[in-house]
Amino acid sequence: MPRLNFHAISEGQVKSIAKSLTDELAMLIGCAREHFVLECVASTYVWDGQSASGHPYVEVHCFDRGIEVFDRMVEIITGHLRSAGCPSVDVSFRLLERRRYYEDGAHL
Fold first, then answer.
1. What pLDDT was estimated at residue 108?
2. CA 92 to CA 81: how far, in whole Å?
3. For residue 30, what are the contacts with CB-CB under 8 A and spacing of at least 6?
4. How do residues 49-86 score in pLDDT, each as one tens digit?
5. Using alpha carbons only, how large is the chain's radius of gyration in Å?
6. Average per-residue pLDDT in the chain?
7. Cys-Cys crosslink for 69: which of 39, 44, 65, 86, Cβ 3.0 to 4.6 Å?
8. Domain of 55?
9. Is the pTM here over 0.90, yes or no?
10. How many CB atoms sit inside 10 A of residue 81's CB?
11. For residue 37, what are the CA distances in angstroms to 26, 45, 88?
12. Mean pLDDT over residues 35-56, rounded?
């Protein structure tokens, strides 16, 4: 169920890495690749009253997998985005709790 929300990263860049990124992350965490969701978030950024380009940022929603796995996930995400033309990217994790996550009306 990992969900990756891409901010200030073009749809084309995400599409160019989607398969290889998902394959590598799925192998790392032992999750079926069909459970991954990649979303390109369209936003308008403003700086000093003017439209501006935002800083590339990835927000990962997932269950806790420990700092070692998260460190490796960040390396994978950052490496793929660099290869797609993002020289710098921030990554953060939003941890989900299994007891508060439901799929089709039932706890996961």
1. 76
2. 15
3. none
4. 999 989 999 999 999 999 999 999 999 999 999 999 99
5. 15
6. 95
7. 65
8. 3-107
9. yes
10. 23
11. 12, 24, 22
12. 94
Dihedral pair phi/psi, residue 41, rounded to 5°: -90, 120
Segment 28-38 shows an average pLDDT of: 96
Domain count, the chain: 1
The one-character DSSP state at 8 is S
- List CB contacts of 29: < 8 A, sequence separation 6 or more: 2, 62, 65, 69, 73
What are the Cα distances from residue 102, in Å, to 69, 99, 105, 107, 108? 24, 8, 6, 4, 6
CATH number of the domain where residue 49 is located: 3.30.429.10
Reading the block at residue 61, the tokens are: 């929603």
Q: Rounded to an integer, what distance in angstroms lies between the CA atom of residue 15 and that of residue 17?
A: 5
Which residue type occupies 44?
A: T
